[in-house]
Amino acid sequence: MSRLSLRGLTKDYGELTVVDRIDLTLTEGEFVSLLGPSGCGKTTTLRMIAGFVEPTAGAVEMAGKVISSPGSVLPPERRGMSMIFQSYAIWPNMTVQENVAFGLKLRKLSAEEVRRRVGQILEVVQMGHLAGRYPAELSGGQQQRVALARAIVVKPAVLLLDEPLSNLDANLREEMRFEIRRLHDEFRITTVYVTHDQAEAMATSDRIAVMNAGRIEQVDAPHLLYTRPRTRFVAGFIGRTNLLEARMENGEIGLDGFGLKVAPTNPEPNGGTRPVLLSVRPQSIGLHRNRPSGPDGRPAVPGIVAQRVFLGETWDYVVQPQGNGARLRVTAPPLQVHEVGEAVWIDFDPRQIAIVE
Ligand SMILES: Nc1ncnc2c1ncn2[C@@H]1O[C@H](COP(=O)(O)OP(=O)(O)O)[C@@H](O)[C@H]1O
Ligand SMILES: [Mg+2]
What we know:
The protein has helices at residues 42-50, 96-106, 111-124, 140-153, 170-187, 198-204, 222-227, 232-237, and strands at 4-13, 16-26, 31-35, 57-62, 65-69, 72-73, 81-84, 158-162, 190-195, 207-212, 215-220, 242-249, 252-255, 260-262, 273-280, 285-288, 300-310, 315-321, 328-332, 343-348, 353-356. It folds into two domains: 4-229, 3-Layer(aba) Sandwich (Rossmann fold), CATH 3.40.50; 240-356, CATH 2.40.50.140. The strands form four sheets. Strands 7-8-9-3-10-11 form a six-stranded mixed β-sheet, with helices on both faces. The mean pLDDT is 90. It is of the alpha+beta class. Helix 2 (96-106) crosses helix 3.
């Protein structure tokens, strides 16, 4: 019963509201990331969950019990939570084995039980052969594995991680993402993971809460955030996108100047005409030398290649569609080469157009 709930959770520092009425509920065993730019309130939210910071308003609940509210905060050590910080802070004067055993000894387990559990978790994080080493004799990635083992070995009800990989180099960061998810699949500890790195959040999480200026803008599974962003901020923060002004007319999207009509996947029942903003991913736009005549009747418009960059895995083109001032980013595979100034056709997959606020 480790259901974790944030209800209207708010933190003010003086005049400044840094966490603003956050609602979020994790099911037992769920892995949720708080993702957003630096300063958006991620760490403050995590510290309120851990009990280090008192909320100004709202509450943190565990299994239906309020554990944080204004004026009443259950101390961190009585929450059954483990937290890992950016600077992983394993004790330099203790060996790997001693670091991991520390929390278990505090819980007064028998020496035999401590040895068994430490040995087991060190095998899981592939550090068994280094149990006698001191932190100074380990690489950054190995130290991070020790920090993870130490946090998990006590079987916390909730695991909290604050940018745990940001001190590692790029290759190791990528490896550790998968490692963190593998550990989660093995132990199913309810986890809140703070990061500003969208790839990290996507690789590890069941759901991602995208934060902007103290608010949660959207909470969804990674692929839904990408394909169905609901706000301009989310569309731009998760991957790259084209934002296009358009009109909603009687349940169809009219793209200004293109003379195009697209039936959206999420039409509105109440007709009428109003301006809308569309998010169209660069790789969802088809790029063609001749007018496409696909059987699916996708809307197509002519345009000119205005710019291009070769990125190895893709070409990154900028296409100016005829009759519209837009400059669309369009990605294409490496063998699809177009020159700057070339006349091309682009077409849109209606299923991959999202209406955003
Ligand atoms: N103790 C504090 N006193 C005053 N302002 C704070 C304090 N802690 C954080 N802040 C401010 O709150 C905002 C959010 O900070 P933080 O939660 O650390 O963001 P993030 O982790 O997303 O980078 C920042 O503008 C930060 O300067
Ligand atoms: Mg932070």
